[in-house]
Amino acid sequence: MTAPATTAPTSGFMRRLAVNRLRDRLATSDAGAVDRFLQRHSAPISEGRFTTFLWRGDADKVMVRHRVVGLPDPLPLRRLPDTDLWYVTIELPEGSRVEYQFEVVRGDVREEYLNDPLNPRLAHGPFGAQSVAAASGYVVPSWTLPDPETRPGSLDSISLRSKALRREQWFRLYRPARFRLLRRYPLLIVHDGDDYLNYAAAKTVLDNLIHRGEVAPLVAAFVPPGNRLVEYANYAPHARFIARELVPFLTEELPLIDLPDGRCLMGSSFGGVASLSTAVRYPSVFGSLLLESGSFVFTDIGAEHGGGPVFDPVVKFVNAYRARPKVVADRIFQTCGVYEPLITPNRSMVSTFRDTGMDVRYVEARDGHNWENWRDRLRDALTWIFPGEQKFVYE
Amino acid sequence: MTSTHLLGPQRFLTTAGAVVRGLGVDGPVATITAGWEERESDDAELDSVMNGRSRNLRLFGRMMDVLERDADVAAAALALRDAVDDLAHLYSLRLQHALDAVYAVRRRQGRADVLAAADADALEAVRRLDRWYLDQVRTLYGEAYASGATESSPLWAENRAEVTEQLASASVLAVAGGHVGMLLRTMQFFSVRPPAELPVVAWSAGAMAMTRMVVLFNDFAQTGAVAQVWDRGLARVERVIALPHARRRIHLDDRVRMEVFVRRFEGYACLLLDDGARVAVGPDGALPPGARVLRADGTLGVVEAAA
């Protein structure tokens, strides 16, 4: 595959892509041209709507693995003639953010899950790190980064004996800066709590958005799962734990707004299913749901859903809900990445939710099924669900 | 004679000291910085602006102290606040729909007189909702006062007496900006009523608190950009909606939006209080010539000198 013989806008005029200019130069240049090229450019190279992935080294085949719906995966790279530099250029729309790795074949040896050695930018998740390609227009939001001016909230580990789950359930309790017993706080319960804290900078995000007055000071319970694929797939004991044990416990112990309006249950992927299924079982507990890339896989006919056995209970649950949709909260903030396979079921669920009369705000992002996508959507979500007091402050 | 001076934000252009000096009165300057909440007592800079004459009434600190030490007062205050919060949520929900209706009508085309009638009635529905909300707030306050929890508290009475005494001995009252909800709450908690003859200099949220109707607004807020009535202020200044930071917080160039805003608050002057604004309100409540206001058609204008 050759790079498109096209141009990219830079500094107000159109230029040919950097890799094409290099190819032209190689005909007359010395062997150090590739070294100088790589010193000048960070990888992958983002030029207007085009992104060029680069790999350097001996290989028989090099491929980008990315899981972006709509692009070939694996995406083969081509060797630049008479060099050890491999490249492929794709169109990546403005604002896109894609996580990727390389697969390299040398003889009979296939190496997989290789992060890009030319790209220092990594995203972390429970299954390890991945390289990040950010198209032009994407910037890491400032409110996801530690701000020395922000007053930090506190995070404490709390244990609760759960009869429903028949175990001691740990969770992390976030209290905002300047926490006062004389206030009443909204409550946010977060599925995959440790992952949100570790990979989606949830504490930093809460600290910053609360400090800036964009989100109301709130209490959050970050709850990690036990057996995630079982407990988050419409599991009655899990729902009972959240609605009948955790919420009453927190309401008793903390100055919380004791109304559905003051409570939000959130989760991503299977955590989205856990949030929705809990709300279906206990429809009067949560005023808001925050569903990020919910794994709302369903079938319109038959049982072939393509998700494997772990999705069987999910599909059964989502099919049942879609057959008889009902109000389970006042408001739903739903989000999904357009590059992930779950985009189609999520789009479909928007109208399912809306048709019940629930107030639904739906946001898509040019991103995939990953924690930094879910991190980047938190501002839109939380400012809508628990708006801060910006409107009250006139310094 | 009532003397009330409404100023723009003081962060970048400090005019409060000059205005106080311009009053030509000696003696202590009572200050209210309750809008700064926990930072209430970080007022060294303000004291410097007031030439070391400031005496902070410490309304926020006093209120917190009373609430922490008197469980009955705390229960009554928290119940009132919860009820007002619930009410505000309901009002906000209804308001969004009512204003959506106004803009939806304005987007329609058809017979002019029919559209005008629909527009007028849609706006009246918004005004009716604003009035309903304020009436409900007053009812809730009435219930809270009727409970007598505060008046029967010696701690509250002691604090209130001190505040009243400080106000009585002050030659000027200066009210700073900050969180207008907290500012109003603390003033209401101690029933602060500056004597009519006491000159008042107030800026930003402080200026809002001096008006009869406090309207919250921020067109650039991440969510909830609808202007909403919040509460009644001290009503030192009648028939004025104070709009501090107008340039930073309002889409002033959105004529339709501005016209709806002005018509919604018909009978009130929409007073813009940006950096450097100094508005001396006369004893009759009239705004002085040159004060910047929104005109009826949604454009910016100034109060003209009387012919």
Radius of gyration of chain B: 20 Å
CATH top level of the largest domain in chain A is: Alpha Beta
Name the average pLDDT of chain B. Answer: 94
Beta-strand residue percentage of chain A: 25-35%
Number of helices of chain B: 10
Helix content of chain A: 25-40%
The total strand number of chain A stands at 21
Brief summary of the model shown:
The complex is a heterodimer of chains A (395) and B (307). Chain A has 395 residues and is of the alpha+beta class.
Folded structure, characterized:
The complex is a heterodimer of chains A (395) and B (307). By secondary structure, chain A is an alpha+beta fold. Chain A has two domains: 7-134, Immunoglobulins (Immunoglobulin-like), CATH 2.60.40; 142-392, Alpha/Beta hydrolase fold, catalytic domain (Rossmann fold), CATH 3.40.50. Chain A is built from eleven helices and 21 strands. Chain A has helices spanning 18-26, 33-40, 193-199, 202-211, 228-231, 236-253, 270-281, 312-323, 343-355, 371-376, 378-385, and strands at residues 7-10, 13-16, 45-47, 50-56, 61-65, 75-76, 78-79, 85-91, 97-106, 109-114, 122-125, 128-134, 154-162, 167-175, 187-191, 219-223, 263-268, 288-292, 331-337, 359-365, 393-394. In chain A, strands 13-14-16-15-17-18-19-20 form an eight-stranded mixed β-sheet, sandwiched between helices. In chain A, β9 (97-106) and β10 (109-114) form a beta hairpin. In chain A, α6 (236-253) crosses α7. The mean pLDDT of chain A is 94. Chain B is of the alpha/beta class and 307 residues long. Chain B folds into two domains: 1-40 and 170-307, 3-Layer(aba) Sandwich (Rossmann fold); 71-152. Chain B is 46% helix and 16% strand. Chain B has helices at 16-22, 44-49, 59-69, 71-107, 112-147, 154-169, 180-189, 205-209, 246-249, 255-264, and strands spanning 4-7, 29-32, 54-56, 172-175, 178-179, 200-203, 213-216, 228-232, 240-244, 269-273, 278-281, 292-294, 300-302. In chain B, the strands form four sheets. Chain B has a six-stranded mixed β-sheet with strand order 3-2-4-6-1-11. In chain B, a hairpin with a 5-residue loop joins β12 (292-294) and β13. The longest helix of chain B is centred in the first third of the chain and has 37 residues, at 71-107. Chain B is globular. The chains are: A alpha+beta (395), B alpha/beta (307).
